Amino acid sequence: MNPTESPNKLADKLQEEGEKTIQFFQALPESTWGIILYEDGATWRVRDILAHFVATEIAIPLILRDIIQGGEGVPEGFDLDDYNRRHVSGLENFSREELLTRFADLRGQTVRLVRLLSEQDLLRTGRHPFLGVSPLVDMIKLMYRHIQIHQRDIRRAVNASSP
User: Fold this and answer.
1) pLDDT confidence of residue 4
2) What is the pLDDT, as a whole number, of residue 12?
3) Burial 34-64 (b: 16+ CB within 10 A, else e)
4) What residues does 133 pair with on adjacent strands?
5) pTM (2 decimals)?
6) Which residue in 15, 30, 53, 127 could disulfide with 73, CB within 3.0 to 4.6 Å?
7) Residues near 127 by beta carbon (within 8 Å), at least 6 away in sequence
8) CB contact at 8 A, 138 and 90
9) Where are the domains of the chain?
10) What is the largest CA-CA distance in the chain?
C-alpha cells in the first residue's frame, strides 16, 4: 500500500479538505447562494451543493462501517439520484451556518473513524453508490475529491455570473 494512503494520512487529508471546504463556503458572498450549477434532472444551486456534502458526510461513514463489519455496502441497484434528491431537499430549511456546522461536526466524526481503521481495513471492498465495488481506500479518497470537483464547478459558475 502506498504510504500516502495510510489511515492517518487519509484522515489528515479529509481534515484538511474539510477545513478548506468550510472556508470556501464562508467566503462565498450571500448573492452566490442561489446560482444554478446543475440542471440534469433536479436543479442544484450553490446552497444545494453544501447540503449534498452534509448528506454525503452522513452516508459514506455508514457505508464504511458496514463494510468493515463484513457487509456489502450499499445494496445492488441503489438509486444515488433518488438518495441525493431526498436528502438534499431534507436539508432545505438549514441556513448556511447550520449546514457548515453540521458538515464540520460530521467531517470530524469521519476523520476520527478513518484514524481508527487499520491498513487491512482500507483494503476491504464493498459497494459504493458511485464507484461500485471498490476498496475502502478509494471510497475515502473520493470523499475529498468529490468536494474538490463540486467546488471547481462553483468557482466556474460564480465567475461566469460576475459582470
Assistant:
1) 61
2) 97
3) eeebeeeeeebbbbbbbbbbbbbbbbbbebb
4) 127
5) 0.91
6) 127
7) 72, 73, 74, 75, 76, 78, 133, 134
8) no
9) 3-158
10) 53
